[in-house]
Structure formats: C-alpha cells, structure tokens
Amino acid sequence: MGRLDDRVAVVTGAGRGIGREIALMMAAEGASVVVNDLGANTDGTGTTNIADDVVEEIRAAGGSAVANTASVAEVSGGESLLQTALDNFGGMDILVNNAGILRDKTIFNMEEADWDAVLAVHLKGHYCCSRPFARYLRESGRQNGRIINFSSVSGLFGNFGQANYGAAKAGIAGFSRVLAIELRKYGCTVNTISPGALTRMTIPLRENRGETVEQEDIDAGGPQHIAPIVVWLASDAGKGITSEIFHAARGGVAIMQQPRIIKSFRKSTGMWQLDELDDVVPQLVEAKAANIEAADRDGVSVEV
Ligand SMILES: NC(=O)c1ccc[n+]([C@@H]2O[C@H](COP(=O)([O-])OP(=O)(O)OC[C@H]3O[C@@H](n4cnc5c(N)ncnc54)[C@H](O)[C@@H]3O)[C@@H](O)[C@H]2O)c1
C-alpha cells in the first residue's frame, strides 16, 4: 500500500532536480504521474526531451507515468497538463507547480526580456496550470485535491540580484493564499514550499563562490530532500492543512510565518499628524524587531 495509491499527480519541471525527485517518490507511493518538462536551460532557453527519461525510470521501477513537454508559461500548456492526466489516467488529484528558471541580474542591468521570462514561467506558470485544475475540481466534484506551489527565500526574505525571481516567488506565496481560500469549499488544499537544494540551478552559485560540490554534498543537500514533505502534503495525511508555507532543505523541515499585523495604533479622531508618527513608527519597528527575534529563537531546528 502506497500513500498515493489511486491518485493522479501532475508535476511540472519534473525532468530533473526537485521536480524529478517528487515525481519519482509520488510514483513509488502509488500515484500515476504526468511528468511535465520542456527541457529548458536554466535561463529558460532551449528544449530537450528529458521528461521521457523520468517516465522510463518510473516505469522501470514498476510505476505508472506519462510525459508532457508543454511549457507551463502558456495557457495551452497548462490546459494540456490536465488533458494528459484525463486522457491517460482518467482524472487529476494533485498539481505540483515546480517548473522554474533563473535570469539573475541587478535592477540596473535587468532587461525587460529577463523580467518577462522569469515572471512568465514562475508566476504566470502557476496561473496557467492551476486554473484548468481548479475548474476541473469544481466541475467534477472530485474531492481531496492538492496544489503544491514553489516559492523561494528569494521572494520571502529577499535576495540580491533577483528582483524578477523574487517578485515572482513572492507573488506565488500571495497566489497560494488566495487559491487556498477559493478552493477550500471544493476540498482542495493549497500550500507553498520554500526549498533549498543543490541542483543545476544552485550549484553554479556555489561554484562561483569558489566552492566545489562533491557527491557527499549532494547526499546531504540534494533535491531528494524536498520530496518527502511534498508527498506528505499530497497524501491523506495532509488533509485540512492549507495556506501554509513549508521550508525544506538539507534534512530540515520548517513552517514559516504568514504576514500578520504585529502591533497597531488607531487614532480615535482625525488623521495622523507627522509629529505623532515620529513617536509611533519607531514603536512599530521595535515591535517588529522583537517579533523577528522571537521567531528566530523559536525557529532553531530541533534535532530528531
Ligand atoms: N534548488 C533550490 O535551492 C531552489 C531554491 C528555491 C526555489 N527553488 C524552486 O524550486 C523549483 C525547482 O528548482 P530546481 O532547483 O529543481 O531547478 P532545475 O533547473 O533543476 O529544474 C527546473 C526544471 O523546470 C523546467 N522548466 C523550465 N521552464 C519550464 C517551462 N516553461 N515549462 C515546463 N518546464 C520548465 C526545466 O527544464 C527544468 O528541468 C523551481 O521553481 C525553483 O525556482 C529551488
């Protein structure tokens, strides 16, 4: 008995890296998997057929899978994911929006094409793939759906040289919160993953700092470490857990804060005067600093 027996999963960008590990583990847990990937370079250019390799790997292990090479950045691509699942497996239960690219540049050098390409694959890609699935869940009445989206500390904390990527990844966290509300009544959970893993996306960043990446580093911090929390959320165990952000990296699993008001003041009458804000704003900033300090203290990993 697998945790995902009789479930149909679509995993985008599953030809390599984190998506591949998720597809392999979902199939090993009994899901029929649509392996989507157009086989792009890290910057989103080019195509190669790598989805078929993962399908072969899954089938060789006794699992069930089919390839889809559409781009998630196209509305028709997102629609084809649902259609591939329906044509081959008769339904769809799980969508993992994992496909991604990078075009790192500071704002001074970021061309419109760099901005558009990254927003298209990440943020629009989440829209393109989620909309057909959401409509299908509503129209079919199929229960227990799962959407698992991929954000990043780049968008949630901020990171130098990634205004396009960070904006898309922060947007994905906001998109997920709205979808969680809209899909609750259709029995579908929507959660966000903030991963950290050594893949072709991140290994060059290490190498640029003069560090070498050995097999033991991949064993300790490779993309395989992200799959368990995604599969768990997709399983029955994840029922009712929605609108959360989980961070996973190097054997760690954590939950992140969602935005909340930490401290507030209200004037009984009239508008704020600037000299009143001289007094109030530092108190707000101080409350925020204390909140961060408490989160940092409580967020230290517990060894298990
Ligand atoms: N690796 C990390 O540490 C890290 C950190 C934060 C966020 N992420 C996010 O996790 C996800 C997976 O990253 P990864 O490290 O496995 O990257 P990766 O480059 O190894 O894999 C991404 C895959 O997405 C595919 N892809 C790109 N554009 C596509 C498109 N338009 N349609 C379909 N497929 C497309 C690529 O061909 C590639 O196989 C991404 O969304 C990434 O932004 C990764």
Q: Identify the overall geometry.
A: globular
Q: What is the CATH topology assignment of the largest domain?
A: Rossmann fold
Distance between the termini: 26 Å
Strand order of the largest sheet: 3-2-1-4-5-6-7-8
Order of helices and strands: EHEHEHEHEHHEHHHEEH
Largest sheet: 8 strands, mixed
**Bound small-molecule species:** nicotinamide-adenine-dinucleotide
Q: Supply the helix-strand structural class.
A: alpha/beta
What is the strand tally? Answer: 8
Please, how many domains? 2
CATH architecture of the largest domain: 3-Layer(aba) Sandwich
Write a structural description.
- By secondary structure, this protein is of the alpha/beta class.
- It has two domains: 8-255, NAD(P)-binding Rossmann-like Domain (Rossmann fold), CATH 3.40.50.720; 260-304.
- Helix content is 45%, strand content 13%.
- It contains ten helices and eight strands.
- An eight-stranded mixed sheet has the order 3-2-1-4-5-6-7-8, with helices on both faces.
- β4 (94-97), α4 and β5 form a beta-alpha-beta unit.
- The longest helix has 29 residues, at 112-140.
- It is globular, with a radius of gyration of 21 Å.
- The structure holds nicotinamide-adenine-dinucleotide.
- The site of nicotinamide-adenine-dinucleotide has 32 residues, from α1 and β6.
